[in-house]
Amino acid sequence: MNRAEAVELLSSAKGRFYVYVLLRPDGTPFYVGKGKGLRLFFHESEALGDGCSHKLNTIRANTRAGKEIAYEIAAFYDDEDQCHRREIEEIARIGRHDLKTGPLTNLTAGGEGTSGLADETKQRIDAELHGPDAPGERGAANRFFLKLCKETRSVPVRPASAFSPKALKPHRCTRAPSRRMAAALAASAIANRVLLEPGCVIPRKLSIDGSVMYIENGASADILKAGLATLVPGRPAGDEHFLLDHQAVQKLLSLSDHDLLLDAGVLMPADLGVAALPNDSLQSDAPHAARA
Predict the structure, then answer these.
(1) H or E element in which residue 77 lies
(2) Residue 220 backbone dihedrals phi, psi, to 5 degrees
(3) Chain centroid to CA 29: how far?
(4) Which of 32, 73, 115, 208 has the greatest CB tally within 10 Å of its CB?
């Protein structure tokens, strides 16, 4: 079906759940999902943003070529659990690209959409997030950041070529200072040659090996909420700065490797008389459940 035909069919669904398939213009399926209402068209809207995935890149490639994707409704259901089961069956029947069993860009087995990642896919995604051997600019960012903070599950410094910064505001949920946040600020301070002292202003934008990078949106919002800095607005998004007062500098230093900062030239030896923060003020680097 084309879009108009799919809209007409879904208008008669009357709130029912359905399993759908997105197809390339040649009819090859590339994604299976479970939906309700106009969920079928969500992925094309998602592809207009800055997210990165095999699914979104497939949609973008066809859009740039002036082609339209097609749609298929596998079945309608009144029961959501039955719909989930059919989604799982369809994904298994067609096969996933990451498992080398078929053409689908799905990265899970379906159902609730949070399980079933292939071990090889997990390793590849993990390496892309923070591995030192990641290719190109992402690898340069990872290697630079991992010198400052090895205890992380993702690197918050992102190449401009693969990232669109958004205007910043503090995260809506409580955040405690973490080593990952402190390292993000330290990374920019080092790259921009900013001395870490009360009143210093650290750019969100930095350059690593000649490539423009940014402290990513979530980490920046966390930094602001945790009190590690206050925001100095900038336009366009990405040109913001972080202002550190005396307390913020103390927090940052209590979470950082002083020798590394000294060697990088962003910390004066006389500034090491910093009281450590209480242990319960430190936050682990586990992902935040409320980030969505």
Answers:
(1) strand 70-77
(2) -65, -45
(3) 26
(4) 32
What is the gyration radius of the CA atoms in the chain, in angstroms?
Answer: 23
pLDDT tens by residue, 34-48:
998 888 899 998 888
Q: How many CB atoms lie within 10 A of CB 51?
A: 11
- Crossing angle of helices 119-130 and 136-146, rounded to 10°: 70
> What is the rounded distance in angstroms from the CA atom of residue 77 to the CA atom of residue 83?
6
Q: Please report, as a single letter, which amino acid is at residue 159.
A: P
Annotate 13-50 with DSSP letters as a single string: STT-EEEEEEE-TTS-EEEEEEEETTGGGHHHHHTTSS
Contacts of 283 (CB under 8 A, 6+ apart): 175, 176, 177, 178, 226
pTM: 0.56
Tokens standing for 136? 């190109």
Cβ atoms < 10 Å from Cβ of 120: 11
